[in-house]
Design goal:
membrane; LpxH-like; Metallo-depent_PP-like; alpha/beta; UDP-2,3-diacylglucosamine hydrolase activity; five-stranded mixed beta sheet; Purple Acid Phosphatase, chain A, domain 2
């Protein structure tokens, strides 16, 4: 078990076939933190509205996070666009998990990092949301192909490999979009008088300096299988969990809505 000052994860997309819940469960099993940030798109409300998909492993992720909160880990949830319905609960807690609009994390060396999902500063999401829905459908199809391809790779003892990440890096417009997003987030962090930003949303893990500010993206758990961490010595780094260390969790049958834990969580102010 490795202990960190803080762990950030985002874009888990529970409720979709592309979610790598088994890898995430293994990551949660082997890593602890004083503070655990859920930086949006943890549950994919968009996809669940169309088709209900909720394997036991997705339920297990929710249980694992709730258990960490009960045992004393500060768990802070910053909703994103795919779980935007949770934004109506800002200032409330669900099973000791705090729901907030945004939050400031102070590193060991005193730097202030603004933590937000990032969709509110994405021009496509704000001015052409229909395009985001179209893109999401295409993205889901690519993940469907990638899922079966990686089953073969795992049987061959190879690491997880992301087709969608590869395509993003090959398409000039996608690369330009990512670069624009990164600069916008750094600018917004400066306006908030912070030393940097931690976000998700674009599924591209990154730590770099932009115009004198620290830009950190924790990636996702459908493509990158990544998390951002702050070590006990104050170092910020990315972790890629492309190999399961413990016994893998078998993919179970989809469970019915009445058996899920989510509706039974009690909110407190």
């Amino acid at each position: 078990m490795t202990h960190y000052r803080a762990i950030w994860i985002s874009d888990v997309h529970l409720g979709t076939a592309g979610c790598q819940a088994n890898y995430l469960l293994d990551f949660l099993k082997h890593n602890e933190a004083d503070t655990f940030y859920l930086v949006g798109d943890i549950i994919d409300g968009w996809r669940l509205k169309q088709t209900f998909y909720w394997p036991q492993s997705h339920n297990d992720v929710v249980q694992k996070l709730l258990r960490k909160a009960r045992k004393g880990t500060e768990v802070i949830y910053v909703p994103g666009n795919h779980d935007e319905s949770a934004r109506q609960y800002f200032g409330m807690s669900f099973g000791d998990i705090q729901v907030v609009e945004e939050v400031i994390h102070t590193t060991l060396d005193g730097r202030k990092l603004w933590v937000t999902h990032g969709d509110l500063f994405d021009g496509v999401m704000q001015y052409a949301k229909w395009l985001a829905y179209v893109g999401d459908s295409l993205y889901t199809f690519i993940l469907y192909i990638n899922r079966y391809y990686n089953r073969v790779r795992v049987k061959m003892g190879l690491q997880y490999w992301s087709l969608s990440q590869y395509l993003k890096h090959q398409v000039k417009n996608a690369v330009s979009y990512i670069a624009d997003f990164e600069h916008i987030m750094a600018r917004e962090a400066r306006l908030r008088e912070c030393d940097g930003v931690v976000c998700g949303h674009i599924h591209k893990a990154e730590i770099r300096e932009i115009d004198g500010l620290l830009y950190c993206n924790d990636g996702d758990w459908v493509e990158s299988l990544s998390a951002l961490v702050e070590t006990t010595s104050g170092e910020l780094k990315l972790i890629y969990w492309t190999h399961i260390k413990g016994d893998p969790v078998e993919e179970a049958e989809v469970i019915s809505p009445s058996n899920t834990l989510l509706p039974t969580l009690e909110a407190t102010t």
